Automatic annotation (TrEMBL):
Source organism of the structure: Planktosalinus lacus
Name of the protein: Diaminopimelate decarboxylase
Sequence positions that bind substrate: R298, Y302, E329, Y356
Catalytic activity: meso-2,6-diaminopimelate + H(+) = L-lysine + CO2
Family, similarity comment: Belongs to the Orn/Lys/Arg decarboxylase class-II family. LysA subfamily.
Gene designation per UniProt: lysA
Modified residue annotations for N6-(pyridoxal phosphate)lysine: K49
Orn/DAP/Arg decarboxylase 2 N-terminal domain segment(s): 24-266
Length: 402
């Protein structure tokens, strides 16, 4: 997908617009399966929260992916995209028992991370297989908002509560078929991840009817040139050997599961915006674009750096710009960033826009959410229409106050 392809997409579908490269998604999926090729049974549950467009879900299904979901709505999207219930795992946090039971009724794998909920569910539904989410109390993740395995996290059942967990399982007679952890996103240190894995292996020994062990995900992708990333190949080599050894010790082959989201789709995505104006102040040159944190909140929310390229003038002389949005609050995408000289009307491409971009978008300032396009087999396919005023008004009710 060239810059000319991107310019044409923006011309055909307007800006701002999200564009996803199917070939990159496929190469990332293959990279993971290759890294863990020595494991007899591998299952990759794509994390729907990263990008929930049903065409993206359908494409991943064609590659062989299963799904990781955190809400009944994500489960329903997965079913709509053609996934079998058996290929969907549901890992909620803080939801009602009614929602969990509704998902269980669909035949989806349930994953529980709360002792109270575990006891209630096991008492009422002892024959429904359940996975248990363990909190290993291992800190991982590039930002406090995405570090979920530490001792103060709201996620998972503390590894130190294992005796109580086992009493609940014994008293209810419930069937535990999986054990799970997720330490956090942007894993930098493989040894820390392997350390957490050992805690999960030790926990797994307490259950005799396991079918799978789910190690979550959180693999880091590069956001700029020279950026560090998770060494998937090294992790695959080390964890595969350890997992195979554990299966021998356990007495049968289990499935090794992961839940990659960002790793599969982040680098496949580009977010195209148009420059509305160039504004020179006493200290800064602003490039004002036709978007804001209503469409791409990650730089403001997580402090993430998204590489920005001027695809209208890619070989121009570089100058320093602060790229800002059109929202009525500070929405700075980049401060004093070196970018090829920008003129009004140019198109800028934000890299790494395939994950947690559209799914975190909003209608703040009553702005429309953009279109989404999938680049597949050398062609652009519209997979979500740009919103209209009708979409904003659809569920609103105008009261008569006269």
């Amino acid at each position: 997908m060239t810059n000319q392809d991107l310019l044409k997409i923006a011309g055909d579908y307007g800006s701002p617009v999200y564009v996803y490269d199917a070939e990159k998604i496929a190469s990332q999926y293959k990279r993971l399966t290759t890294a863990f090729k020595k494991v007899k049974q591998l299952k990759l549950h794509y994390a729907v929260k990263a990008n929930s467009n049903i065409s993206v879900l359908g494409y991943l299904r064609s590659l062989g992916a299963a799904l990781d979901t955190v809400s009944i709505q994500e489960v329903q999207l997965g079913l709509e995209a053609g996934y079998a219930p058996a290929d969907i795992i549901y890992t909620p946090n803080g939801v009602s028992m009614e929602e969990i039971e509704a998902v269980a009724a669909l035949g989806v794998q349930i994953n529980i991370d709360n002792l109270s909920i575990l006891e209630q569910f096991g008492t009422k539904h002892p024959n429904i297989p359940v996975c248990i989410r363990i909190n290993p109390h291992v800190m991982a993740g590039g930002n406090t908002n995405i570090s979920v395995g530490h001792i103060d996290s709201k996620f998972g059942i503390s590894i130190h509560q294992m005796p109580l967990l086992l009493r609940i399982v014994e008293n209810t007679g419930m069937h535990i078929n999986g054990i799970h952890m997720h330490t956090g996103s942007d894993i930098l240190d493989i040894d820390v991840f392997l350390y957490a894995s050992e805690i999960l292996f030790d926990a797994a020994k307490n259950f005799k009817t396991l079918e799978f062990i789910d190690f979550g995900s959180g693999f880091k992708v590069p956001y700029k040139e020279g950026d560090i990333q998770t060494n998937i190949e090294e992790l695959g080599k080390k964890l595969s050997k350890r997992f195979n050894d554990f299966c021998l010790e356990y007495g049968r082959d289990l499935t090794l599961a992961f839940e990659p989201g960002k790793f599969l789709v982040s680098e496949a995505g580009k977010f195209l915006v148009k420059v509305n104006g160039i504004k020179q102040t006493t200290s800064t040159v602003f490039a004002q674009v036709d978007s804001g944190f209503n469409h791409l909140i990650r730089p403001m929310f997580y402090g993430v750096t998204h590489y920005i390229e001027n695809i209208s003038n890619p070989k121009g002389k570089e100058r320093f710009y602060s790229v800002v949005g059109y929202i009525c609050e500070t929405d700075t995408f980049a401060n004093n960033r070196r970018i090829s000289e920008i003129s009004e009307g140019d198109l800028l491409a934000f890299q790494n826009a395939g994950a947690y971009c559209f799914t975190m978008a909003s209608n703040y300032n009553s702005r429309f959410r953009p279109a989404e396009v999938l680049w597949l087999n050398g062609e652009a396919h519209l997979i979500r229409k740009r919103e209209t005023l009708e979409d904003l008004l659809r569920n609103q009710i105008l009261l008569s106050v006269d």
